[in-house]
Specification:
Glutaredoxin; homodimer; 2 domains; alpha+beta; 48% helix; Glutathione S-transferase Yfyf (Class Pi), Chain A, domain 2
């Protein structure tokens, strides 16, 4: 089993933190996004989307979505449970993980990739170039703030994003809460429940993974 | 258990088709998106995102993401299996379902919502308005075609999107293959593997759900 990884990017961090929580030791292969190694023929033959993380399983399957990588590891190494015990818990973990991906991650990425000179003509991952649109920076900022407001409302009711158990949804939220600093947003500012949650999750050693 | 539904939208269709494949009978509550009922105080107290489908489970939990609704139903009604048997299969279903959501659904939605007069100032669901940007129509079109090209490559290798078993990933792909007609794209044109897959899935009675 091998994890194609890059230590500066938020999605690989989710996979590494999940692996650390499980207490697993998985070989890592560095794909340097700063050097565009994800667009090499070698890597796009593994993942045509040109994204990391990718998990190569022992049977040679390539999983290219973080949620799928975590689902696989959860099934082969069930303890500690990170994706819910009951049908309701399992569903809530996927529910909040999806919200974090589609409303949080994509909004921050929209802002960053339309703003940073490093992403000029690289607004989406993959081989096809899309040019930056400055209008999308402000739109991404508003959507990011709107996302963290929704999360604040949720965390006023529960200790962990999917309910009373720490889960993949929290790992995903941590990754993007830190990712927000790339676009000069501090999600903890004026959001006390999120701040308390951040303090709580920061006590876990897996955050350094 | 109740499903908040709207029969013209692609995501509720995924939930309905999944329910039909399971042979379940679940009460439906119509939320008329054409009349903006999803933004009523009553509905946003259930789902602040203002989207359908939403599943209200028997314990009163609201699931607002289609993948979470399906995960819940898969766990309480395992047969027929629609989200994989083995760890690898389960992961591949989530993997491809996620790709369909984030690369297919979001691209078509980007095109449609920036184009159709019906979505003026409604580029994203929810209570906050974002204005249309005509430039995003062409970008959405290119991303949609790029997505279906990737799917074509995949379906040249396998009968069903996640492998050899029909799954949620196929249900999601069907919903957006038909959704593409809203933006005047015929995904089957010049894509023979996708065409064969479409013929195969159209034989299932659940497609009418």
């Amino acid at each position: 089993m091998r994890l194609f990884d890059f230590n500066r990017a938020p999605n690989p961090r989710r996979a590494r933190m999940f692996i650390a929580e499980k207490g697993l030791d998985i070989e890592k292969v560095n794909v340097n996004l700063f050097r565009m190694e994800q667009l090499s023929d070698e890597f796009t033959s593994i993942n045509p989307l040109g994204t990391v993380p990718v998990l190569e399983t022992d049977d040679g399957t390539y999983l290219t979505e973080t949620v799928a990588i975590c689902c696989y590891l959860e099934n082969i190494h069930p303890e500690p449970v990170l994706m819910g015990h009951t049908a309701t818990e399992k569903a809530l973990v996927l529910n909040w993980n999806n919200i974090v991906e589609q409303h949080g991650m994509l909004s921050i990425a929209e802002m960053l990739r339309n703003w940073s000179p490093g992403f000029r003509d690289r607004v989406f991952p993959g081989k096809i170039n899309y040019h930056q649109m400055p209008e999308l920076i402000e739109r991404g900022r508003l959507r990011t703030l709107q996302f963290f407001d929704m999360i604040e409302t949720r965390l006023q009711l529960v200790n962990w994003l999917a309910g009373e158990q720490f889960s993949l949804a929290d790992i995903s939220l941590l990754a993007i809460s830190d990712f927000a600093s790339w676009v000069e947003i501090d999600p903890l500012e004026n959001r006390s429940a999120l701040q308390a949650w951040y303090t709580r999750i920061s006590e876990r050693s897996s955050v350094k993974a």
